[in-house]
Each structure stands twice: as C-alpha cells, then as structure tokens.
Amino acid sequence: MILYVHIPFCHRICPYCSFYKHTPGDTDLRAFIQAIHKEAACWSALPSDTAIDTLYLGGGTPSMLSPGHLRELFDGLHKTLPLENTHITLEANPATFGTNKAALFKEMGVNRTSLGIQSFNDHVLKTLGREHNPEQAAEAVQLLRESGMEEINIDLMFSIPGQSDADWQHSLDRAVSLKPDHISAYNLTYEEDTEFIDRLTKGDYKQSEDTNAVQFQQAHDTLTAAGFHHYETSNYAQPGMESRHNQGYWHGVDYLGLGPSAVSTIGDRRWRNLPDTAGYIHAVNTVGHAKREEEIIDEEAYRIERIALLLRTTEGLPECYLEDCPEGAVDELLGNQLAEMNNDKLRLINQGILLVDAIAEKLV
C-alpha cells in the first residue's frame, strides 16, 4: 500500500494549477493537522500485514507549514501508522524553507524532496505566478544536499505561454548542472477552473502541438545525454532513483489518501474526500472520515487505467491487458513503428511516445 497526504495550503494560488488548494486564511492549522491524525486513526485498523511502502505529502505546499506544525504532523502520523520502513517524499516550494527547515525535513524521516521549480527563467516564473526566483531555486537544491537529503527531484514545465525554446533549454541545462537525482518535465496542460484555461478560451494563450513536440524532444535529448533514464513520459531519473510512489500508482497498488480532496483506492473501492478544508475537519471530527463520491472499480475500469498509465512507462504494458483491444489496433501500432513488443510487453517507441494518450484511447 502507498499513502498520500494532501496539504492544501499555498501562499499564492498559481494560475495553472487545478489541484484543490487555497491560502490558509483563518484556517486553524492545528485543528487541520489533528483532523489528519484522526482520519489516519480511522484507517489504522488495516490488516496487520499491510505495509506502507511510500508516503507522499503533496498539495498545495506542504513545506510552507511551520516547523512546529510539521513536527506535530509527522509525530502523529508515526504514532498512528506503521511508517518505520516507509520511503517518504515531501513536496517543497523553494521560497518556503531555509537551512533549518531543510535539516528538519531530514530529521523527520523525509527521504526525498520534490522541488516545484518549474523554470529557471524570471519571466516564465512570473507568468506561472511562482513566488520564488531562479537563485532561490538553485539555493534550495544546495540546502537540501547540505542537509543530507537522500533524493532530490526538480519539477520543470514546458510549453508555457511566452516560453521560447531557448528559455526551455536554459532551464534544462540549469537543472542538470545542479545534479538532482530525478527531473520531471511536464507539458503544460490547460485544466478546468484555472485562470490559464480562461485565457486560452479568450484567445490570450495558444496551444501548439509543434511546440509541445519540439520542447519534449529538447528535454529527452538533454536529460538522457546527462545520464538520466527516461522511464516514464514525463519522468527522468538517475539509475535507481525512480519515483517509488508514482510507480505504485502506475502498477495499480492500493493507495490511501488523507486530507481534503484526497483520493483512495483499496481493493475495488475508490472514494474521494470532501474537497473543502473546513468541511473536511468537521466531518473527520464528527464521523472519523470525510469520504465522498465512492465507486466500484471493476475489472474493465482497472484494465483501462493500466493501459493509460503503463503505456507511459518504458517498462511497457503487459500483453494480458491487450486481449480485449479492438482487432488490428496493436498490429497497426507495430506496423507504423509506433510501438514494439518486448518480453511480452507493448512499448511505445519513436513518435508513439508523443502520442501516448491518443494511442491509449485506441486500445480501449
């Protein structure tokens, strides 16, 4: 099993982000943390042989919590859940921590810090509404290294409005120079209920498949030349530094989500927590959980998810998930050299890597 904890607080709301988040406002942060602990306690009666392989704290901006709140959060989770051998990732914004807090991350058992840097260009960061600058981003990596952090990931984003190919190359080169263990290079997507989708609809912003393809190839060429293994469409890792938590999602292991809006899937049951922090705290204090929108994931839904997720990996999609595909769909991919069969797994190659979402739709 893997565990996710959602911390929805941000100092500033980025105009491209569709995750449930908000500024702290008048939220009682201690009451929020206590609610996380109470929800965790609701699920602590899982079978005794259920190990929690990974814990991922995302948001929002988990690193913006004060040292006192971070200690309280982690102490309560460790008391409630079996986290002795759990690999822990914490998302962090470079503007929200310094030397002491970086050391605290390590002290609390965090093995991996994922830095939401996105760009090393000032004007691109301004477009994205980020509160850090390129110098703070580079310093954050150094602070984490000095703290003894075992693994560091840098998140980058391309196809951003106003971002040239040269801007993107600069960000890639700067990220590589900092020698992180992992780099995620995400193609910007325009999500519902964001300022970016509104500006796209109005015509202020444009989408370009050509830009997507060119900048994807820039990332692939630069990062693989620097020794990173391209193991998933948007993810590159030094040998042995792949994201264990994300691999759990891709392979369909059970996952438990704590916090407002967090999603859980255990066995064939999936549910989402109430996406409202005040309502979440009240629900947990009243009934011990904030479950909403529960559904059953049948075999076909599970198969479709594995196709969509495993096709994105260089490991490939096991042949067993192809049995019910439309007739001729796989042969067409092979014939057009968009995919190959290797060790009974379908792997996308060449232009197929760029067309992963369209190909997944054809296979279901």
From TrEMBL:
Where does the record say this protein resides?
Cytoplasm
SUPFAM superfamilies on file? Radical SAM enzymes
The membrane spanning regions, by residue number, are: none
Q: Which domain of life is it from?
A: Bacteria
| Matching PROSITE patterns | RADICAL_SAM
Boundaries of each Radical SAM core domain copy?
A: 1-223
GO CC annotations on file:
cytoplasm
Single GO molecular function: 4 iron, 4 sulfur cluster binding
Annotated family:
Belongs to the anaerobic coproporphyrinogen-III oxidase family. HemW subfamily.
Q: This chain belongs to which protein, by name?
A: Heme chaperone HemW
